[in-house]
From TrEMBL:
Residues 624-861 form the ABC transporter domain. The chain crosses the membrane at residues 36-54, 353-374, 395-423, 435-454, 461-481, 493-511, 532-553. The keyword Cell membrane does not apply. Pfam families: ABC2_membrane_3, ABC_tran, ABCA12_C. It comes from the Eukaryota. GO terms for molecular function: ABC-type transporter activity; ATP binding; ATP hydrolysis activity; lipid transporter activity. Belongs to the ABC transporter superfamily. ABCA family. CPR flippase (TC 3.A.1.211) subfamily. SMART domains: AAA. One of its GO terms (cellular component) is membrane. It is a multi-pass membrane protein. The keyword Nucleotide-binding applies. This is ABC transporter domain-containing protein. Coiled coil: none annotated.
Length: 946
């Protein structure tokens, strides 16, 4: 029966045990889980509802400000079956919102100042060649051009050809045919959605000519989509004025500029040319034109600047000067780029907010995983499992697989539900791309949670931090990171660095999905040009690295998962094993013995026994051997170092129960913690069946049971489930397991009334205590440590518990600490009394009583007046009796055993009864309690003295 625990439970057994436990744990958490899975479903549904609502409301607004539509097929009920939208059905206001696959063309125009602003003679300009101010009233002011250059005669003859089209007006019957004229407009260019605004408004178009003939105004039909406008074309004479230098031109332009100062007259010219060094062989010109039109407005991106025709005009003038008036450089038309339809108010919630929403949804898992990991650490459950034989490997793999399964289900719910209700975000993109992305991400997230869990040990902190992380990264992603992604001038390396944070790589991936879903979806081949490929590579590489670091930190720095390993633990195979082995142990130990000079004989005897044992080649039949185990806490803030354990040497044989007694803080728990691997000893070591606790703890755990001082239990699991889990860890299976669990439950009185099947959260303190004891004993461990197993138990349960421990003792060595002397006497074969970190005595309870007791306690109660009589009586019995207690008639004496016989005492009392009234009397042997107090006081007195 006991042999089943000999073997180390296999990897599969441990994994199986943990997996089943987690499954039950999750089943209990079903409400939380349902809430978790509901989250993506609610988010998806809300988005859809919101989208429908917004779209419906926007439709009415958009009717006016969108491309026009008409019904082209009405059914019998008068409902429209088919509508057609497009520029041909639009008003002028609607046109800019239509899609324009083939934009119309129009002749390039010149920018002409309005008639009231055109340059005239004023008193602030020195030039008399400008027209008189009176032309402004009639609107007949010419379009003035200023000229300069190095060779005036050349320049003037060049300018004579400017705007000379020499064309007959009869030939103009549509917009295209106007392109041979030099046309201009004084309209603002405004926002051009479709056509040059000059043709859409009702202001006239100017036909610029060196000289205007009378009655030269004519109309041209302009077809704009379905509308035809009669466009007025007015002749406008041009005036070319020579200036001596370009600085004079600048001055004139500057002075005529409208600057908001109403005192000044505005004098605008059309443009100015500087012919520089142009001659017959060389055409070199610089042009001044008014660009204020463009810069005026913040919406300037869409505005035209009417310059190209100016360039063409001066080039033609030069060409005609060189080659004659029948040569011309044609400038046929300008037109807009083809463009898609635009609607003013369009809200696509998912393409705008999808990345943010789903970042939140998926990140939501992170705090959940983190909390679960930290919970087991905070409640010390991880250590508890480890102490009962759960290796780090199975723990990691099962936890990982389990979180993966959970995350996978969660994301699957999200994607399946999202596509089911028709969200383009999920529908449009290739499912295999989505699968790979989410698969890689959830792996990274789990690894990241493992890494984070190493540095936290409080569930509350983790919960708050985790949710702040979720909220914060979503907001930073949307407010900052997305802008950087969209800003193409932001260096790519910067993005890569940001995407190292898992939250940003998630955001980036979701952003790309959202972006692609508005076009034609993401396929594998798109990965090369969007950010997704990059993100996937970053995540995969990071996953490996994070996992390694997480494992490393878990072993080295993790708070609360047991003994921390040396930072270079993976090199231990190359280092020398610790020198303290059984083959050559003596030197070291002899030296340390000197430091404990005042040792009691029984303690030194035990120490010698340990030393003898360790010299033997095989001492593994001794379940526990402690070899000068020491624990020292370095002093802080200038305090001296504190010794918790000052050299414990102890050898326990099989079937022995050793009781550690001692006042609080004497070092009992510290000693046990070292032996169960919760603390590393400062020096010395212990051997469990020959295995060193410093190096072979993992192997020791399989044969060890621990009942810690504070119950380490899962609130949501039942007592039976606890026992099943730990039983499986101890390699019990099938009927053996069921039987052992049953026995355990009965043994600790948790069987009746179905207590064993209630969740531990509902247990009373005493029930938890009994369960802890049962856990420590399940699977017949070879060594068992119990830290105050019976605290808080009622007497009945306590007696039951003692029976259990007594039975277990037959196969195991047990070390227990207790404050109950009764318990120590009943259970323990040997006792050790601890004071201030060292053992004061070791021995069987009766042996100790004999050694430290050595006297009877005689108590007698009489009336006050008879006190003297009693004292005389005692003095007669034993001259060296010692009064230890005296209060209102009750007196207590210590009578040395070698001076009195019990029969004498009885006789003396009988005689005394005849002389005075005795209310009560008693004679008692020394109790263990007396011994305990005596030893403790003695040691403390010694410590105070020294
Ligand atoms: C100016 O141009 C004319 C031709 O228009 C040319 O005959 C004359 O030599 C030029 N003068 C100078 C100084 O280059
Ligand atoms: C340029 O055009 C703007 C707006 O049409 C006008 O206010 C301004 O006076 C013009 N500047 C010159 C130098 O003609
Ligand atoms: C055009 O004129 C500018 C300014 O005077 C001068 O720097 C440049 O060399 C000239 N170009 C040619 C080709 O003559």
């Amino acid at each position: 029966m006991a042999n089943s625990s000999q073997e180390t439970s296999s990897f599969m057994t441990q994994a199986n045990a943990l997996f089943r436990k987690n499954l039950i744990f999750q089943k209990r958490n079903i409400k939380t889980n349902i809430r978790l899975v509901m989250f993506p479903i609610i988010v998806c549904s809300l988005t859809v509802i919101l989208q429908i609502f917004v779209t419906k409301n926007l439709k009415s607004i958009n009717k006016l400000e969108s491309c026009g539509c008409v019904c082209i097929n009405e059914n019998a009920d008068g409902n429209c079956e088919k509508t057609e939208c497009g520029i041909q059905h639009s008003t002028l206001e609607q046109m800019p919102y239509c899609s324009i696959p083939s934009p119309p063309r129009w002749p390039a125009l010149l920018q002409i100042p309005s008639p009231e602003f055109r340059a005239v003679r004023t008193n602030f300009t020195p030039f008399t060649d400008l027209p008189d101010e009176s032309c402004r009233n009639s609107g007949a002011c010419p379009a003035t051009l200023l000229l300069t250059g190095l060779n005036q005669s050349f320049g003037i003859s060049l300018a004579a050809n400017l705007f000379a089209s020499g064309l007959d007006r009869k030939s103009f019957d549509n917009l295209d045919s106007l392109s041979n004229l030099y046309l201009g407009s004084d309209t603002s260019t405004g926002t051009t959605g479709f056509l040059e605004p000059a043709f859409i408004g009702n202001s006239p178009i100017y036909n610029i000519q060196p000289q205007c003939a009378p009655n030269s105004t004519f109309f041209v039909p302009v077809q704009i989509a379905s509308v035809t406008i009669q466009q007025e074309v007015q002749c406008l004479g041009s005036l070319h004025l020579w200036r001596q230098s370009s600085s004079m031109i600048k001055d004139e332009i500057f002075k005529g500029y409208q600057d908001g100062n109403s005192e000044r007259k505005i004098n605008e010219i059309v443009a100015a040319f500087d012919f520089l060094n142009s001659d017959k062989n060389n055409f070199n010109v610089s042009i001044w034109y008014n660009s204020t039109v463009k810069n005026d407005d913040e919406d300037s991106d869409n505005k035209l600047v009417r310059v190209p025709r100016l360039v063409n005009a001066v080039s033609n003038a030069y060409l005609q000067l060189m080659k004659g008036t029948d040569v011309r450089m044609l400038f046929d038309f300008v037109k807009e780029m083809p463009k898609p339809a635009k609607s003013v108010f369009s809200v696509d919630i998912l393409s705008d907010l999808g990345a943010l929403l789903f970042t939140w949804v998926i990140l939501q898992l992170f705090p959940v995983i983190l909390e679960s990991l930290v919970y087991e650490k905070q409640q010390k459950l991880r250590i508890m499992m480890k102490m009962h034989g759960l290796g780090d490997g199975p723990y990691w793999i099962i936890s990982y697989a389990y979180f993966f399964f959970m995350s996978f289900t969660y994301v699957l719910c999200l994607v399946v539900f999202g596509s089911a209700i028709g969200l383009k975000f999920f529908r449009m993109n290739d499912f295999s791309v989505q699968f790979v992305f989410y698969f890689v991400y959830i792996n990274l997230q789990i690894a990241f949670a493992f890494l984070m869990a190493t540095s936290f040990s409080n569930v509350k902190t983790v919960t708050v931090m985790g949710h702040m992380y979720v909220l914060g990264s979503g907001i930073i992603g949307a407010a900052l990171f997305q802008k950087l992604v969209q800003d193409h001038s932001f260096p790519r390396l910067g993005l890569v660095l940001l995407e190292i944070f898992p939250c940003f790589s998630l955001y980036r991936g979701l952003y790309e999905f959202g972006y692609s879903s508005t076009t034609d979806g993401m396929l594998w081949k798109d990965l090369r040009r969007n950010g997704m490929g990059e993100v996937l590579i970053i995540m995969v590489v990071e996953w490996f690295i994070v996992l390694l670091i997480a494992y490393y930190f878990d072993q080295v720095v993790s708070i609360g998962s047991g003994v921390r390993k040396h930072p270079l633990f993976f090199l231990t195979n190359f280092q020398k094993k610790p020198s303290l082995t059984s083959s050559q142990p003596s030197l070291h130990r002899r030296g340390s013995r000197v430091s404990v000079p005042m040792e009691k004989p029984d303690v030194s005897l035990e120490r010698e026994k340990v030393e003898q044992l360790l010299l033997e080649p095989d001492f593994s039949y001794y379940p526990i051997i402690c070899d000068n185990l020491k624990k020292m806490y370095p002093g802080k803030d200038g305090n001296p170092d504190k010794f918790a354990v000052r050299g414990l040497s102890l050898a326990l044989s099989r079937g022995e129960c050793f009781g550690m007694l001692g006042p609080n803080g004497a070092g009992k728990t510290s000693s046990i913690n070292m032996m169960i691997g919760l603390m590393t000893p400062t020096s010395g070591t212990a051997f469990v069946h020959g295995l060193d606790i410093r190096t072979d703890m993992e192997k020791i755990y399989t044969n060890m049971g621990v009942c810690p001082q504070h119950d380490l239990l899962w609130e949501t699991l039942t007592g039976r489930e606890h026992l099943l889990f730990y039983g499986r860890l101890k390699n019990l299976q099938g009927t053996a397991l069921a039987q052992a669990v049953e026995e355990s439950l009965k043994g600790v009185n948790l069987f009746n009334g179905g207590v064993g099947d209630k969740q531990v959260g509902k247990y009373s303190g005493g029930m938890k205590r009994r369960l802890s004891v049962a856990i420590s004993l399940i699977g017949y461990p070879k060594v068992v440590y119990m830290d105050e197993p019976s605290t808080g138990l009622d007497p009945a349960s306590r007696y039951l518990l003692w029976d259990v421990v007594k039975r277990a003792k037959q196969n195991s060595a047990i070390i227990l600490t207790t404050h109950s002397m009764e318990e120590a006497e009943v259970l323990c074969d040997r006792l050790g009394i601890y004071v201030d970190g060292s053992l004061q005595c070791i021995g069987h309870p009766t042996e100790l009583k004999a050694r430290y007791g050595g006297s009877y306690v005689f108590t007698m109660t009489t009336s006050l007046s008879q006190e003297k009589e009693v004292e005389n009586l005692v003095r007669q019995l034993s001259p060296s009796a010692n009064k230890i207690y005296h209060i209102s008639g009750t007196q207590k004496f210590e009578l040395p055993k070698n001076e009195v016989r019990i029969a004498d005492v009885l006789q003396a009392v009988e005689i005394a009864k005849t002389r005075f009234t005795i209310y009560a009397w008693g004679l008692a042997d020394t109790t263990l309690e007396d011994v305990f107090i005596k030893v403790a006081e003695g040691a403390q007195a010694y410590n105070v003295l020294s």
